[in-house]
Design goal:
229 residues; alpha+beta; Alpha-Beta Plaits; 3 domains; 9-stranded mixed β-sheet; 4-stranded antiparallel β-sheet; 15 strands
């Protein structure tokens, strides 16, 4: 098994965070500093910073209504990091990201495999946002957003976009490019002033107050996992 999958399966951290640890030379296999393409056998001794990887215990799936200012990183040295903000007793990490200036739903878990399944844009998992911009929303703007916008050297996938008010619109994405909505709006001459994610696949905000988190219900988790398989 590849080292990044091995560690993410333990629930210690995501594959992305594992890659950072590998680059920093903080992971060893049988006393040797590990390379990114290393394979792990059952009998191997894998250490991080010279310590064994703790057991993740019971599976954890929670949803947080993230406020503006919280950073979706597991790096504890970063001020306002999401791990310290949630302060969960289990070692968890965020599934995907919301940038520091955005708010709304984000999932956190200690199950590494779910991160990789949800992050694959080809799987078409929906995420819904309410967006406020600095200029009136026009039909031309809505059509352009829905049809695809050229950013980061690619054209975004077609998506569902509807007007909510003079300065607000709703958008449902099935991909997750870096700062995608903000970049799309900027390319069309608009600036985002507020961005809130209100749905991730089957999970909605409901009455979850900003800054609060809760465990997924059994039905939410059952539906989520079914959609990921």
């Amino acid at each position: 098994m590849r080292i990044n999958k091995y560690i993410s399966d333990t629930g210690y951290c995501s594959r992305r965070e594992t890659n950072r640890l590998l680059q920093a030379g903080r992971i060893t296999i049988n006393g040797e500093v590990c390379k990114g393409d290393a394979e792990v056998e059952q009998e191997d001794i894998v250490l991080i910073d010279g310590k064994t990887i703790p057991s993740k215990g019971e599976a954890v799936y929670i949803v947080l209504n993230k406020p503006v200012g919280i950073v979706c990183t597991a790096a504890r040295q970063v001020k306002g990091n999401i791990i310290d903000f949630v302060n969960h007793p289990s070692r968890i990490f965020a599934v995907g990201r919301l940038d520091k200036d955005s708010e709304g739903l984000i999932l956190l878990t200690n199950e590494g495999d779910i991160v990789n399944k949800m992050m694959r844009s080809e799987n078409g998992h929906e995420k819904e946002y309410w967006v406020t911009v600095d200029k009136p929303v026009t039909e031309e703007f809505l059509r352009a957003m829905a049809g695809g916008v050229d950013i980061l050297g690619v054209t975004t996938k077609p998506c569902e976009v509807t007007s909510l008010s003079k300065y607000e619109f709703r958008i449902i994405l099935t991909q997750g490019l870096n700062l995608q909505i903000r970049r799309m709006c900027k390319a069309l001459g608009y600036r985002v002033t507020r961005l809130e994610r209100i749905r991730i696949m089957n999970i909605t905000k409901g009455d979850l107050e900003q800054g609060e988190w809760r465990n997924l219900t059994k039905e939410e988790l059952r539906t989520l996992l079914a959609q990921l398989n």
